[in-house]
Each structure stands twice: as C-alpha cells, then as structure tokens.
User: Which sequence fits this backbone?
C-alpha cells in the first residue's frame, strides 16, 4: 500500500493536491480527527483491504494541536507503517494574497491579522517540513504545472527532488526580475529588432530563432550555460533549495532572450529529476 500524508501551509495548495491525488486513484481523507488516524491506518492496511493507495490530509487547526498528529505519525512509523510526506508550500506574500482574494480568515488567527496566523503556522510546521519527502512550492505554479508535478511523483513514480527551476526571459528596459537567482545578459548578440522582417516577431517564431542561433556565439553561450546549470542544480538540491529562477535578459525581452530561454529549456528538459518550467515575462510588451 502506498500511503501519502499531505500537509503544508494553509493556502499552499493542500486541498488541490488531494483532489489531484484522488483523480490519480488515491483514496483521500482530509481533516480526520487525530485520535482516529491510527485506527484508520490499521483498517486500510489490513491484508484483505482493497485500498492500495491512500492520501491523508493533515493541517493546523485550533481545536487540535498539530504536535499530537506528529506523535501519531511517529508511532505509526515505529509500528512499521511506511508513509511519504508531501508538504505544500508558498511564500508569505502569495499566501496573504490568496487569503485576501478568498476573504477567508486564517485558522490560527480567526479574529486577527492573517500575517500573524501565517507566522504561527510556519513555526508549528517547521519540523514536519524538514522531514517531508517532497516539498512543492506553489508560489509560481499554475494548476496545470502542479498536476504535472503530482503526476510525476505519484503516477509516473519518477525519482523526485523538491526543486522547481524556472527559465525566465525578460527585457532589461523593463527591469531585472526581483525573484531572479541567476541573471544572464545576452545583449552581446545582434538585435533582430533592427531587421524590419523580424521587428514585430518574437523569439517564439522560427524566423527569429534561426537568426539569433545563426551566430556561433549563441550556441557557445547555450553550451556553457547548460554545462554550468547541470553542475549547479544538483548542488542546489543538496542544499535544500526549492526554487531557482534563471533570468535571461536582452533589451526588450522579445527576441534574443526568448530564443535563448527556449533553447536552454529544451537542453535541460528531461535532464534531471527536478521540476522545470519556462516563462517569458516581457514577450507581450508593445514594441
């Protein structure tokens, strides 16, 4: 039997993850009272049980200390029950925004500020977060991308590291992305903007891609950058990093940076057991 405990920050995507696991064939139970957890696991683990995949949602609530739930999990492990922990995460700013959009109160601060509840919850969940087998940060994930991550871990059963790498193209004229961990400037390449037939196209168009990649320096750049990232990413994983944003910038963020971001994404795709996504921040900006 595969047994997954789904927990994490309120607003981090736990309920969404449980629904996706249910779609993947898991028998899902959420908000089970702590005293019933051990009995529930004993029942589903019986030899004649028809349930082969189970997901149990655990969250922080005022009416039952989360420490009690952790003690039950420790007891289950001592008794030989194996389970995996999926921790759903998001930045404080993102959680606050989600609470404001839904107009819900935080469970740990029902009559106070949401920020206070988030801070309390982080402290309570710090221990189980470090013990988690998988940490998915939904700060920048679309629902479709979250489903891909859930499928990769629990359907395709691929080896997984809790690192999401984002290849992000941008234009320096619009500012360097505040969340970029690594920034690379590709303005050393000739600018397609000054070629009339390419001016109103982008790095997503084959004509622009062919022009940019026709210069030997572009291929050399991709070779060197790919090599460096293939070295860096496993070391970031080793240090417990969950988000890596690689910014590639040109003047306007429409031609050179988009082309090279696409090439880098193609190089890194299927190269490692980490999440990979691509985004073009300024490709829609007016000329």
Assistant:
């Amino acid at each position: 039997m595969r047994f997954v405990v789904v927990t994490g920050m309120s607003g981090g995507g736990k309920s969404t993850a449980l629904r996706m696991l249910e779609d993947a064939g898991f028998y899902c139970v959420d908000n089970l009272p702590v005293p019933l957890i051990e009995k529930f696991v004993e029942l589903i683990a019986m030899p004649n049980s028809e349930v082969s995949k189970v997901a149990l949602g655990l969250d922080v609530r005022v009416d039952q200390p989360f420490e009690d739930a952790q003690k039950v999990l420790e007891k289950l492990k001592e008794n030989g029950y194996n389970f995996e922990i999926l921790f759903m995460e998001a930045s404080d700013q993102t959680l606050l925004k989600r609470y404001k959009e839904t107009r819900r109160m935080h469970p740990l601060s029902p009559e106070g500020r949401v920020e206070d509840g988030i801070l309390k919850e982080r402290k309570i969940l710090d221990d189980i977060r470090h013990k988690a087998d998988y940490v998915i940060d939904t700060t920048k994930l679309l629902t479709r991308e979250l489903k891909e991550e859930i499928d990769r871990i629990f359907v395709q059963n691929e080896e997984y590291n809790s690192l999401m790498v984002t290849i992000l193209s941008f234009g320096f004229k619009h500012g360097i992305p505040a969340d970029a961990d690594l920034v690379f400037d590709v303005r050393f390449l000739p600018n397609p903007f000054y070629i009339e037939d390419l001016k109103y196209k982008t790095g997503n168009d084959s004509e622009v891609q062919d022009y940019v990649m026709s210069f030997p320096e572009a291929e050399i750049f991709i070779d060197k950058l790919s090599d460096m990232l293939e070295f860096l990413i496993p070391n970031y994983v080793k240090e417990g990093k969950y988000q890596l944003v690689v910014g590639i910038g040109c003047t306007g963020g429409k031609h050179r940076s988009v082309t090279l971001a696409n090439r880098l994404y193609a190089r890194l795709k299927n190269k490692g057991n980490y999440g990979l996504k691509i985004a073009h921040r300024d490709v829609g900006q007016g000329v």
User: Anything to note?
Assistant: Residues 2-154 form a domain with the Rossmann fold fold (CATH 3.40.50.300).
